[in-house]
Amino acid sequence: MRNFQFGVFLLLITSSMLFYGCNRTGINYENDIVTEETLVADVEIMESKFLFNFPKDIFISDSLLIVYDIQGYDDAFHIFRKETGEYIKSFGHRGRGPGEIIDASSVDCSSGKIVVCAPNQNKIVVYELDRILSDKPDSYREIQIVEVPNFVKKAVLYDNGYIIKGNDDRMRYGIWIPEQGLFKNVYTEYPQLSTNAEINWSLTDYASRLRLSPDCRKLVSGSYIGCVLEILDIQDDGCFGMSTTRYFYEPIWKIASGAVPKWAVPTDETIIGFQDISLTQNYIYGLVWGIELEVLESGHPFISKFDYSGNPKCKYLINDLMLALAVDSCDKIAYGIVMDSDGECFIGRMRL
């Protein structure tokens, strides 16, 4: 981790890119996230004995913190006490066997369950935290991904099934109930960030974050390229409807050479948007860069708090490099993965 440069960790393939351009669809971008107030949040480093390698996500489940580390250990997930940061145990073995994962296109936490979408292994794995902590057998469920309209990119636990995110206009979102062999309420709309459909899909998908509100009534997406915030309503029958879209920064991109379908990636001039999103019952919290990729290594992201109408309410400035964010249900404490100047990562806590 000491030689790891965070500003380029998602851009390892960009050396073979061709320049494509930026938005020409007539959207009026806000070019900033203007909040009602700006505060400074001081980060307190918690338990520092555990050595992370490449931590990507952090989640809160009751009195626990769960960190997803994408490399380095035999297990991908690590459990800590929320109050102290004390390490408890790890789970989620890496591999190709039952209940094992090689990599994940998305990870989510809900109702004491960790939901891992591993489409390259053609499966979703759901880990039961209470059974893991009690060392009980059958601590996971594995669901094969079958009979879906397109390639699955993300999965979120919803009711007796999953909200699934696809990768083109055959399905952007849909509800999948695998036990019933049922796929319903397909939603196909995308914000028109580009006049090219394939580029448009990839701009909303590249390193984006997708979260479901605690009451399961709002689905929130934040883009990494350009910083577009989308808030969808979920009706009682499970149908999706767009509530609010905020266009904060204009997306600028390159096309991956030879990619089929076309795939947009950042350039040095791209303003980087959402690094992570965390939802409470009352607010949306975004970990946002708001600066060009070429100056990412010398800057820090900030936390922006939005209401569920998409209005920015408060900006929290942090003097640390934060990689992932989770806000407690009280809306008073935020936890994050923090990287120091030597590239070492720790769990940090701050009062909002």
Outline of this structure?
With 352 residues, the protein is mainly beta. Helices cover 4% and strands 48% of the residues.
Biggest sheet, spatial arrangement of strands: 2-25-24-23-22
Biggest sheet layout: 5 strands, mixed
Instruction: Name the helix and strand elements from N-terminus to C-terminus, one letter apiece.
Output: EEEEEEEEEEHEEEEEHEEEEEEEEEEEEE
Tally of alpha and pi helices: 2
Low-confidence stretches: 1-19
Strand percent estimate: over 45%
What is the CA-atom radius of gyration, in angstroms?
A: 19 Å
Q: What is the residue-mean pLDDT, rounded to a whole number?
A: 91
Amount of helix: under 10%
Q: N-to-C terminal Cα separation, in Å?
A: 29 Å
Q: Helix/strand-derived class?
A: mainly beta
Name the shape in a single word.
globular
Count of individual beta strands: 28
Word description of this protein:
The protein has 352 residues and is mostly beta strands. It contains two helices and 28 strands. The strands form seven sheets. The chain has a five-stranded mixed sheet, with no helix packed on it. Strands 3-28-27-26 form a four-stranded antiparallel sheet, with no helix packed on it. It is globular, with a radius of gyration of 19 Å. The two termini are 29 Å apart.
Topology (elements, then pairings):
Elements: E1 17-22, E2 37-40, E3 44-45, E4 55-61, E5 64-69, E6 75-81, E7 87-93, E8 106-110, E9 113-118, E10 123-128, H1 129-133, E11 140-144, E12 154-158, E13 161-168, E14 171-177, E15 182-187, H2 197-205, E16 209-212, E17 218-222, E18 228-234, E19 240-247, E20 252-256, E21 264-265, E22 271-279, E23 284-292, E24 302-306, E25 312-317, E26 321-327, E27 333-339, E28 345-351
Parallel strand pairs: 2-25
Antiparallel strand pairs: 1-20, 3-28, 4-5, 5-6, 6-7, 8-9, 9-10, 10-11, 12-13, 13-14, 14-15, 16-17, 17-18, 18-19, 20-21, 22-23, 23-24, 24-25, 26-27, 27-28
